[in-house]
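Progress report, Aim 2. The chain analyzed during this reporting quarter is listed below.
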Amino acid sequence: MREIKPIDHCGSIQLKFSFSGKRFSFNPIPGGTYNNKRDLNTAKAIANKIQIDILAGCFDSSLDKYRLAPKQNKPKPSRLLELWDAWVSSLDLSPATRANHYKAVRTMIAKVNPSLTEPLSLTDSKLAPRTIKDRLSMLRACYNWAISQGLVDANPYLNIKLKKSPVTRIKPFTVTEILAISQGFEQLAPHYTPFVKFLFLTGARLSEQELRS
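Predicted structure tokens for the chain:
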């Protein structure tokens, strides 16, 4: 018998298989969607249950045993905090991940909790540029998911562009400074002198030397 796998049927989930010369086709999760990871995993579990029942000789040909109750349509979120919570709940996150960046973004959202069409201001915060970039990426992903679920019509974060942070140039030691440092090591810690000269000549960082040692 071929393995039973969920298939995408116009966005919904369908299970198709044959048994004892009869073809079966049904939606195991009424109201579920193929793009929803939780729904898809549930459908896979149901497909596995069907195969086990067939092998055990207790297959329910009415399929009632394998159908879940229809999903109740929940009201659409009206504020960003509701949307964020719904998106995070749809993800397969570990408790540690959920309590880290996702919780930090939720705290940021909760302070203002704008409407779904009003983008949250990120550039006014005192966050590091990298943190702002990461949070913007997460908000974009949240809205992309919401669009796929029919919860919103557009992503207000797509056109937000962040200013590039200025590149900080490191001022190198002068020749005079290098000679003074080398002489200092020769006098106070001569056993480190070859290593210090090696760093000056190669420009290698201490962390790189630790990785190679």
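The longest strand covers residues 12-19. The chain has a mean pLDDT of 86. These observations will guide the mutagenesis work planned for the next reporting period.
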